[in-house]
Amino acid sequence: MRKLLSICLFLLLAHVITVKSLNPTLDDDVLGLIVFKADLQDPDGKLASWNEDDDSPCKWKGVRCNPRSNRVSDLVLDGFGLSGKMGRGLMQLKFLTKLSLAKNNLTGSIGVNLAQLASLRVIDLSGNGFSGPVPSNFFEQCGSLRSISLANNKFSGKIPDSLASCSSLGTLNFSSNQFSGLLPSGIWSLHGLRSLDLSDNLLEGEIPKEIEGLYNLREIRLRKNQFTGEVPDEIGACALLRSVDLSENSFSGALPTTLQQLSLCNNLNFHSNLFTGEVTEWIGELGRLQTVDLSNNMFSGAVPNAIGNILSLKALNISNNGFSGSLPASMVNCQNIESLDVSRNSLTGFLPTWVFQIGLQNILFSENKLTGSIYGALTSSIDISHQNLQVLDISHNALSGEIPSEIGSFTSLRFLNISKNALMGEIPETIGKLKALDFLDLSENQLNGSIPHEIGGATSLKDLILSRNSLDGNIPSSIGTCSSLTSLILSRNNLSGQIPVAMAKLSDLEYVDLSFNKLTGTLPKPLANLVHLVSFNVSHNQLQGELPAGAFFNTISPSSVAGNPTLCGAAVNKSCPAVLPKPIVLNPNSTGTDPETIPPTLTHKRILLSISALIAIGAAAFIVIGIIFITVLNLRVRSSMSRSAAAIPLSGGDFSSSPTTDTNSGKLVMFSGDPDFSTGAHALLNKDCELGRGGFGAVYRTVLGDGRSVAIKKLTVSSLVKSQEDFEREVKKLGKIHHPNLVALEGYYWTPSLQLLIYEFVSGGNLYKHLHEGEDEDGNRSSLTWNERFNIILGIAKSMAHLHQLNIIHYNLKSSNVLIDGLGEPKVADFGLARLLPMLDRYVLSSKIQSALGYMAPEFACKTVKITEKCDVYGFGVLVLEIVTGRRPVEYMEDDVVILCDMVRGALEEGRVDECIDQRLQGKFPAEEVIPVMKLGLICTSQVPSNRPDMAEVINILGLIKCPSSESQEEEESG
Ligand SMILES: *[C@@H]1O[C@H](CO)[C@@H](O)[C@H](O)[C@H]1NC(C)=O
Ligand SMILES: *[C@@H]1O[C@H](CO)[C@@H](O)[C@H](O)[C@H]1NC(C)=O
Ligand SMILES: *[C@@H]1O[C@H](CO)[C@@H](O)[C@H](O)[C@H]1NC(C)=O
């Protein structure tokens, strides 16, 4: 028995060995594949295992054999990175059933008649670079072929008629080639066909009624060809169809109602054809539909009510047709719908509330004729906890009302477009809660108010479009936190203020349009860092100063900056130096030692200075006497003040705010109509007692009935206007002057023998004290920082510019006339008092008013030079130097008199400028600001009045000096 068994085994083995060595067909497979490989390039070495010395190819990569016959059955080389041609070697593989060469880089035409491989069932050549026509006999013996894909190649020409002989074909995919001409008529008799994809070719002709032969069809895709004609009623016979895509052709006519027989269908895509007519209730029969795209056709009539029966609907797109009426309310049943695009139709009625109630992700309603308020529709959905909404486009309708603040609860919103409606009110602050929002367009409405600061919370914003509204206020600097912003379109509003420096942080910015607003100030220099700018339109604003230099701004088109009268730079064809006073040099690198940086006017200084020195010294003598005089007076004032203060009964009273005349008590007027300046003051004023004498008058503080302090100045200039009428007229004018940097005149009191001016009380003392006296217990003088000093200089400049605009000359600008309020803001006092003098002569001016040594402009000493507001500029210049150096305008040394501006001028010329900057700044100042400010001070103290800039120019210069970077730091600190 055992012997028998071993004989059998032996015989079996012998048989196997003989079969292997003697069977030539096995070698055919090896040979065929090696020949096939020889035609290919294999850069990735995927076919390295294909070795011609092997007896069998069955273990080669990509090769599978039939286990019984050991013949190659499957060759699957998808994505092997192969290039080259598909050679004849394959024809040796007589038992091949599946050939898949998808996603390689094979090229050339297919010369080999693959279909003649009698057992081949699957051919997949998709995703290669094959080209040329498919040979006309290619399909002649394809009876066994089940599936063929030539998709994504460059095949051209007609699809061969021989295709009709592939009677077992179930899947045909010729998509994305350049096949052209008519389809072979035999294609409609491939009854086994389940999937037909001819999309993205150049095929033409009509779908014949023979389509009814494809009754096994599950899917048909004819997208993106040149098919024409109507869809035949017979399509209804393909009752197994799940998906129909006829999009992007030139099909016309109405959709056949037989479509309702496709009850298994879940996808209907007819977009971008020439279909007309109405879509009627038949569509409701297609209860499994998930996506329906009828967009870009010429459908008309109402959206059928039956659409509400399609409970499985996920996406409906009927955009760009002629649908009219309102959307059927039945759609509230479509609880699975995610995307609804009905834009560009003629839909009317209100924005339906249900669209916000069924959890839609995309709502696109633009370009219809919807009316009513969006408020009700939007707010109806706030209690839906799960907010899916990502895209809301209801632009270009006739919607009205306000944007509800509930918009902020749609936290998934990425795209919000409500432009081109008739919305009113303000942009809700809650917009800042939309962290995912990357597109916001509210343009072309009637929105007002300002752009909310909270917009900075929408940190994903890429496009922000608010143009053509009535927005006012500033562009919030919080915009700087929207760091992805590429488009910022705010044109045609009433925006004012400066362009925030923070905009320069938005490094992705490409398109900026701020045109047709009321923006002021200069363009921040760091904007030049925006390297991706494509356009930057700031035309038609009130911007001033120099355009940023560099990068985009060197080539900015003139039209982008036009309509800003005081903007300068090459692009506006206006050179900037003309705006600046000639001598100032703003080069931050300059230390002032370069002779070119010294104003030309100063080269004459020796001669002129001697004049000013003489004046100063002359005045000094006068002043020394004056100071003694005033000191004596002050002592008297103080004693009488304490007396009078005690005499004021501080109870309230019925004193009227309207002017009261009383021969005995005189006339008291409070401009604000403050009734609390009552009997107390009355009593005081009634006393008609002298409170003191001196220069222009003595001032003291008193407390009103309501606890408010005022400063009262008793005028003691003997030659004051005589008539009450003239006095009142001038004082009332002064009372109308309001400026944050001027001490407000709040009222006055007049009797023939006593005139009082009632001023706002400023708590922080005067600048003189801050600069020269402010000592604490340890004897250290309190020290203003550079920013405080700069702010004081700027404030004074603004106040003077304001006065000069009103044609008022101060005549008496000096540090003791500059009061500092609790916030460190300067307030200039004693303005306009010269108007109360009957006559302005030099004597009165220089002796009575311009009593402060060192501030007096040289022209006071020169009878032939007219005294203009430039004398204030001189005083301002001295004040600037005083603030920067911390030294008095004139200082008396042991045997020397130091005139401040001469000293600074000399130091600047000799490069010792650091020595004269206030030591209390302890080096904590930006030299690039301090030095130009000092130079500005010197320009202002030019000996020739016409060489001094006017105060408006001074403000411009100060704006230029303050470097944007330190400005933005401050902004961050305060914000
Ligand atoms: C395909 O082949 C062509 C020509 O040999 C070559 O230029 C191209 O880079 C290849 N593409 C890929 C994806 O390998
Ligand atoms: C046809 O082939 C392309 C490319 O491989 C593929 O994207 C497409 O889905 C196929 N068509 C069908 C109906 O499967
Ligand atoms: C200032 O000096 C720096 C470095 O020396 C130079 O890069 C810059 O261009 C100079 N600025 C001006 C305005 O000259």
TrEMBL record:
UniProt cross-references to PANTHER family, sorted A to Z: LEUCINE-RICH REPEAT-CONTAINING PROTEIN DDB_G0281931-RELATED
Enzyme class name: transferase
Reactions catalysed according to its record: L-threonyl-[protein] + ATP = O-phospho-L-threonyl-[protein] + ADP + H(+); L-seryl-[protein] + ATP = O-phospho-L-seryl-[protein] + ADP + H(+)
Signal peptide: 1-21
Source organism of the structure: Lactuca sativa
Start and end residues of each Protein kinase domain: 685-961
Keyword ATP-binding recorded: yes
Protein name: non-specific serine/threonine protein kinase
Keyword annotations from UniProtKB, A to Z: ATP-binding, Cell membrane, Glycoprotein, Kinase, Leucine-rich repeat, Membrane, Nucleotide-binding, Receptor, Repeat, Serine/threonine-protein kinase, Signal, Transferase, Transmembrane, Transmembrane helix
